[in-house]
Amino acid sequence: MKVLHMAMACLSMLTGAALAGETTGAHEHGARGQLLQVTCQAIRSRVAAIAGTGPVMLASYEPAPGGEPLASALQGSAFVYDNALAGIALLACGHVDAARRIADGMTTALAHDRYYHDGRLRNAYRAGAVPDGPVPLPGWWDAASKSWFEDAYQVGTATGNVAWAALMLLAVGDATHERRYTDAAATMMAWVDETTFDARAPAGYIGGFFGEETGPRRQGWKSTEHNTDAYAAYAWLARRDGQARWKTAAERAGGFVDAMWRPAEGRFIIGTAPDGHTPNSGPSALDADIWPLIAFPDSMSKWSRALDWLHAHHAVDGGYGFKGEPDGIWTEGTGQAALVLCATGHCDQARPLWPLLLAQRSPSGLLYATPQARIRTGLSIGPESKGEDFFYYHLPHLGATAWAALAAAGRNPFRPEEN
């Protein structure tokens, strides 16, 4: 009965979703409705599997059925970005209590870090129930060296990940009318503004910090994606708090995103080089190109040609890839494209994406990050990388599942749900 009730609730929300210019056929409605049902159930079931009602962090990846065990760095790792997405998706699914448990995991991590007490979050935590004391970070024991290892990226702090956590907390705060979530989001975004803003042209927020607390490396590059995230969080805070500081911060982040627009090409470049000044115009990243269309709705007409770039340079095998001229489908990005297309009045172009996304469902219920064995992003994980080493693999992925749920529900994660 619980499963039936949840499915009916999800489908009811789908029927009521107001997406500009949406025109759907029976087949699209069926695939989209089914996608919403299965993704909502998959995320909610992972929260319910952790006993009690206390704070949680959800594992980002699971081993592929019949495949190799997860790499050591992914075993039991709960990435903040994936969990923020999952929390917002749960709200879109109507599961406020489940979303609250993830939000409580974030606020506990904020208040009980093993070293930092300044408003930052790490990029990942250990999956499972979140204890009251110092919140454990991911890591693994290496028997050969008899040493404990932690991943330098996971224990660091990326500006965009903090902003995504803040967006989730703001959404949960709106849904529950509990001020503590909004206050936690404000604490996080104050850290971003005070610590990562770089006034050198093009002014904006830098990438964050890489490595352990004894000597984290400052990441001086500035990202279009991160500044889009920061803009959305600051604009939301400004609407809720009315403080001038948030409006100023939003203008800073928004100004950087606008500076990354290349009207001659009809696209956003990915950001800057590590010096924080030189444009990094070589790579093309799907999220950097289309997220501004739903984070800055007043600029949608100005930047609408970004959709032409999406179709021309990221389309692959009926879906969309991460990098320009991609080598395979990025499930998460295909969900992002479906959401943006519908939100910008092009839902007819998203129609083939619903069954494609549904086809990525793994036996566990989560969607695969990619149907390919591995796809490239064209990017590096951090300053210790010797070259391109950021890949997505054919693994069940929480983030991909959450984006598909958001797309199917028509929920814009960058803006409040106005009543």
Q: What do these coordinates show?
A:
This protein is an alpha+beta fold and 419 residues long. The protein contains 14 helices and 20 strands. The strands form 9 sheets. Strands 7, 8, 9 and 10 form a 4-stranded antiparallel beta sheet that branches. Helix 2 (26-48) packs across helix 14, helix 3 packs parallel to helix 5 (159-176) and helix 5 runs antiparallel to helix 6 (179-196). It is globular and about 55 Å long. The model is unreliable at 1-26 (pLDDT under 50).
Contiguous low-pLDDT stretches (5 residues minimum) are 1-26
The description of the largest β-sheet is:
4 strands, antiparallel
Rg, Cα atoms, Å: 20 Å
Fraction of residues in H or I helices: 40-55%
Q: Assign the structural class, choosing from mainly alpha, mainly beta, alpha/beta, alpha+beta, or little secondary structure.
A: alpha+beta
- For this entry, what is the oligomeric state of its chains? single chain
- Shape verdict: globular
Strand content: 5-15%
* Residue-averaged pLDDT: 93
Distance between the termini: 30 Å
List keywords for this structure.
419 residues; alpha+beta; 20 strands; 13% strand; globular; disordered N terminus
